[in-house]
Design goal:
Distance between the termini: 20 Å
Number of strands: 4
Number of helices: 2
Strand order of the largest sheet: 1-4
Structural class: alpha+beta
Largest sheet: 2 strands, antiparallel
């Protein structure tokens, strides 16, 4: 399932540079994750890199984007051809 950033985000910019899919961008006022690009780092890393670096612990599963690991891997492969 894709991830999302909640209102606890401090807009610290720690998450954006570690995303292998460039799914994270600055929003107003908090950062946002594009669920069409988020693979929870499946295909690139063992665990979501954004969650590892987030000091606010504000990155959670997006309940509107339920996907299996296989679905996430297919999405990753489509993004990176």
């Amino acid at each position: 399932m894709a991830l999302m950033i909640n209102e606890a985000c401090t807009a610290c910019d720690a998450c954006e540079p570690v995303c292998p899919n460039q799914a994270i961008s600055a929003g107003d006022p908090i950062y946002v994750i594009d669920p069409m690009k988020c693979t929870e780092c499946v295909g690139a890393e063992d665990e979501p890199q954004c969650k590892l670096v987030c000091p606010a612990d504000c990155i959670l599963p997006n309940p509107d984007w339920e996907e299996s690991k296989d679905d996430l891997l297919v999405k990753y492969e489509q993004l990176h051809g």
